[in-house]
Every structure is written in C-alpha cells, then in structure tokens.
Design a protein that fits this description.
By secondary structure, this protein is mostly helical. Helix content is 61%, strand content 8%. Helix 1 packs antiparallel against helix 6 (148-171) and helix 9 packs antiparallel against helix 10 (249-264). The longest helix has 24 residues, at 62-85.
C-alpha cells in the first residue's frame, strides 16, 4: 500500500508539472506554458515594488522625470490600444502603470509584472533622447506583456518538482501537499523580480516587441541601433553570450536590424504644426509692418 501511495503521489506531482495555462504571446505568436496565476505574480510583484520604492531615492531632476513619465505613458497607451484591438482587453486590467526615475548610476531599467517601471539615472547618458528611451521602456514593457517573469518562475517550479519535490514524495511518508510546496517556490522566486534573469530567447523576444511598441507610440525604431551601439561601448558591454542570459551586443544589434522592417510597419510619426505656426507668425509680422507704415 505504501508503495502504491508513493507512486500515486509521484504521478500527481508529475501531472502538476505538466499542467498549467497555455497562452500565446502577443505579436510574436509564441506558445508558452504558465504554472502560476496572474494573481500570484501580481501580488508578489506589488509587494516587492513597494519595498523597493521605500528605499529608492527618487530623482530630483524634474525635466528627466517628466520625460520618463511622458514616454512611458505614450507606450502604455499604445500597448493597451493594441491589446484591446486584438481581443486581449481582459489583460489590460493587470496593469497599473507607474514610471519612476531613481538616483542610481547603473545603466539599467526594469519593469515589474503589472506595469511598475523604474529607470536608473545612469541610463540616460546612453539613451540621450526620447526615442531611445522609448526603445528601452518598450523592451521592459514587453517583458511584462509577454509574462516572461511568470514563464521563468514556471520553469523554476518544473525544475524544483523534478528534483526536490518529486524526491520528497518518493522518499518520505506523509509528504506535505504539492500546493504548499508550490506556494513556497513562488514565494522564493517572487523576491527576485528585479534581478530575474530571462533566457536569451526571452530577451530577443522583448527586443522585437519593444521595437514595435516604440513604433506604435510614435517613436522611430531605427534609433535602437545607435542606442545599442552606445551601450556596447560602455562599461556594461557584453561581448560574449556564452555564459550570459542576454545575447551579445553584436548579435543583439544584428537581430534588431533584421527586425526593423517589421517594426517600421507600425511606425506612424506624430504630425507637427511647426510650419503652420511659422507661417501664421510671418503673416502677423507682415500685417504689423504694414500698419506701422
């Protein structure tokens, strides 16, 4: 009976590993298997974000802060419009967008699941303009939209089940429930959102989606090449991808160049009224001059 019990519990654990939700990533159409719920991920994400912001030093540069919020909101609006127009309006409820610029010299940014985005001041010397900043924020938002955090957590859970949990089921009587084990794993992974390493495939997917999101928001995706070239010349340059979850700078730039034609199909630059204003001003000047004569 004891052997039968162990076999049954092992089978249950295997079923838990193989189940989950299969979804399609927007834009790329890639299928992914998610073992954690949106509620679980968002709860942990909000908790970590709150804790982080308590210790973070908000930037005192009003102009740069306004730029980050302005660019971020344009992207958020474009992303929500895309989701709404492609039958994914229900996913919009997951996002509660916030955009913050913090005092940190690192050239970095991150987006928590749920749309909590933080940009480090050290990134701005590399972006240099709003369009390049949009490339970065588009990439970070793409991680959230593609649910890469949940996907990585799910992979960790599968690995954990395949080693420790399944071993416990087979070697101990009165094993704690798989639900409890799952909760413990989720809790452990939930403390790593800011430093969570995505796979190279996730990073490449976020690059592609980010280009498109930036284009949708009215930013020229072509600037991505010069931005990543500047990044490649910085101290954080990643010349080899052998031991990294990120692609090398050279491979990243090459991939972006291949993805630009697709991104440009979404690009609709904002129309300006500078010429009209100038023309009106000239007419006004002429009228005034005539009156003086």
């Amino acid at each position: 009976m004891k052997k039968v019990k162990f076999v049954l519990m092992a089978l249950v654990a295997a079923i838990v590993v193989s189940c989950g939700t299969t979804r399609t990533v927007p834009i790329t159409g890639r299928k992914q298997n998610i073992l954690v719920s949106d509620e679980q991920v968002l709860s942990l994400s909000n908790q970590e974000y709150t804790n982080y912001m308590k210790s973070a030093k908000i930037s005192t540069n009003a102009a740069n802060t306004a730029m980050v919020k302005r660019v971020g909101q344009k992207l958020a609006t474009a992303v929500e419009a895309y989701l709404s127009n492609h039958g994914l309006a229900s996913e919009i409820n997951q996002y509660s967008w916030e955009f913050n610029l913090v005092q940190d010299k690192s050239a970095n940014a991150f987006c928590m699941p749920g749309g909590k985005i933080v940009v480090y001041e050290g990134l701005l010397p590399y972006t240099q303009n709003e369009a390049s900043l949009a490339i970065v924020l588009g990439h970070e938002i793409a991680h959230a939209v593609a649910k890469h955090s949940a996907e990585q957590m799910s992979k960790q859970i599968k690995n954990q089940y395949g080693t420790q949990i399944l071993g416990s089921v087979l070697n101990a009587a009165g094993v704690s429930s798989s639900t409890t084990q799952l909760a413990q794993i989720i809790a452990q992974k939930g403390l790593q959102f800011r430093s969570l390493k995505y796979s190279r495939d996730n990073e490449t997917e976020a690059d592609r989606m980010g280009l498109i999101f930036a284009a949708m928001a009215g930013y020229d995706p072509n600037v991505a090449v010069s931005f990543w070239q500047r990044m490649s010349q910085g101290n954080n340059s990643n010349q080899s991808d052998m031991f990294s979850d990120h692609p090398s700078d050279a491979k990243r730039i090459a991939a972006i160049k291949q993805e630009l034609p697709e991104a440009l199909t979404y690009y609709n630059p904002a129309k300006t009224t500078v010429k009209k204003t100038t023309s009106t001003a000239k007419k006004t000047v002429r009228k005034t001059t005539t009156r003086r004569k």
